[in-house]
Design a protein that fits this description.
alpha/beta, Aminopeptidase, eight-stranded mixed sheet, 11 helices, 10 strands, globular, disordered N terminus, binds zinc ion
Length: 391
């Protein structure tokens, strides 16, 4: 018996994607998407430890990529590549990697721009699996600069979904490819870099105010912004919403990009990544009132949390932002939901061992694996609900 031989070799050696590690598996048949397996993966199962990609590419051993990381090590103990011990990549290597993906996966990956930061860095993301009439998924990470794991996780998600595509073996890859993905791993690059170079716990943008730097990017969106126009909010506060909605270049640019994706029509699912309270959240953050879609969003969130838990046993709480974590007026998910994207979620990723300190390669992998399970489940829910008559 002979197997057909592929004439197209992948440009670099990669680990084949495991076929059945996901709790929910999917196959596209006659244009429809159906669940084909409910086998639970083993924790740390196939594909987890064998994949050397992330740390080797982004955290120091790939000199071609990391030649962009030129900052001097400082007293925080950054290594020569500008990273803490661990695997969190700097902004420039991330962007270099995105550009490289677009070359390696021509036709499947485009680098896209959601404006420019206050200090002039481009807000880069990728579009995966572009298609004329495909529904769209949007993932943003790094709005809060110190939440490094969110940026690393978004990169891992990009890597994972492309890896599955190459191997063409993962049962969920059909579902993934049915959507056009827009992923922005680092939407606050100024703050992110500042959190490496100067202040590890920095959260805000780096715009220059009269007395303090920065605005909380997740309080600056133009829905329910700064209720009562509170003038008591101090500009040095960590959750300072800014002097006006969308006064920040980062939120303005990103929101314009989101608007261009036809929210509510083609843009069907939005996920904002934060860390690290282990929650799946949905509108509203500006009010304790239930949204019109409360029950449905709760149901999807709980299914996503169950899928996530099946990967490594991590338990996530599910509920509206305001009553589950705290009031957060002016957050991106509220704005996106109000703009017509019914399926709008924020995820507070798993709690690391040392919050805000190290982001190890194994932490990125474990977080990535379970987050991916949740997002694939959300995609399945959105796809199946979209195809229901009358919905
Ligand atoms: Zn956050």
């Amino acid at each position: 018996m002979s197997w057909p031989t592929s004439t197209a070799m992948p440009p670099t050696a990669r680990t084949p994607a495991p076929a059945d590690w996901m709790p929910n598996s999917f196959r596209v048949t006659n244009g429809g998407i159906s669940r084909v397996s409910t086998a639970a993966p083993a924790p740390g199962g196939p594909g987890a430890a064998a994949d050397p990609w992330f740390p080797s590419t982004l955290a120091g051993s790939d000199s071609a990529v990391n030649s962009n990381a030129v900052d001097e090590p400082n007293q925080q103990g950054l290594n020569a590549a500008g990273n803490l011990p661990g695997a969190a990549p700097r902004a420039a290597p991330i962007y270099a990697w995105l550009e490289r993906l677009a070359v390696l996966h021509a036709g499947l990956v485009d680098v896209v721009r959601g404006g420019r930061s206050f200090e002039g860095r481009p807000i880069k993301g990728v579009r995966l699996f572009p298609g004329k009439d495909k529904p769209r998924l949007f993932i943003e990470a790094g709005m809060h600069a110190q939440e490094w794991i969110t940026t690393s996780t978004a990169c891992w998600l990009i890597h994972r979904v492309l890896q599955a595509d190459e191997a063409d073996a993962a049962p969920w890859s059909g579902l993934a490819r049915a959507f056009e993905w827009h992923v922005f791993p680092n939407v606050n690059p100024d703050g992110y870099e500042y959190s490496f170079k100067t202040e590890r716990a920095w959260r805000k943008t780096r715009s220059k105010g009269l007395v303090c730097y920065g605005v909380d990017g997740n309080r600056n969106w133009a829905y329910g912004w700064n209720p009562g126009n509170s003038t008591t909010r101090h500009p040095c506060a960590r959750n300072f919403p800014g002097r006006a909605p969308f006064c920040e270049a980062e939120t303005r640019g990103l929101s314009e990009y989101v608007r261009s994706l036809a929210p509510g029509a083609r843009l069907r699912l939005y996920v904002s990544l934060h860390s690290s309270k282990q929650m799946i959240l949905f509108p509203w953050g500006c009010s304790r009132e239930h949204s019109a879609d409360h029950e449905e969003l709760m149901e999807i969130g709980q299914r996503a949390a169950s899928a996530l838990e099946r990967v490594h046993g991590t338990k996530f709480q599910v509920g509206p932002i305001a009553s589950t974590i705290y009031m957060a007026p002016g957050n991106s998910v509220d704005w996106v939901y109000a703009a017509g994207v019914k399926y709008a979620f924020a995820m507070e990723l798993r709690n690391p061992v040392k919050p805000e300190q190290y982001v190890s390669a194994s932490a990125i992998e474990a977080t990535g694996e379970e987050t991916f399970a949740a997002i694939i489940t959300m995609l399945e829910e959105v796809a199946s609900r979209s195809s229901r008559c009358g919905k």
